[in-house]
Amino acid sequence: MYEELKVGTVPSALTHIEYDIVESEEDEEIPIDLDPGETAALAVAAERSAVLLSDDLAARDAGESLGVEVHGSMGVIVLSYAHGEVKKSVATEQMKALQTETSLFITEAIVERGITLLDEVER
After folding, report:
1. Are residues 63 and 83 in the same domain?
2. Residue 66 burial (CB < 10 Å; 0-12/13-18/19+)?
């Protein structure tokens, strides 16, 4: 991702978002072989006590083993609902779309658990 940002290939929908380019320390010990982007994201999250956003199971497991808080797409949808950014019906449809319209492996049980989490949110 660093190389993409360095050459200015930020998607037009994201041009209004402020960001900083950060680099991780080379000596951060990542316990599993991940792709370079996930490795860098995990190293930065570990160094900065930040949240790692990933749907990759290996990256999530590695993050948890390093004590990094990890959330995936379903968690982001629940959080957006909890903060009033989307209506419950929209959040539910987004969860279902993750299963039917993306390449993510999301079971019906995971979708149902996500919908249950929406019901548990106090707003």
Report:
1. no
2. middle
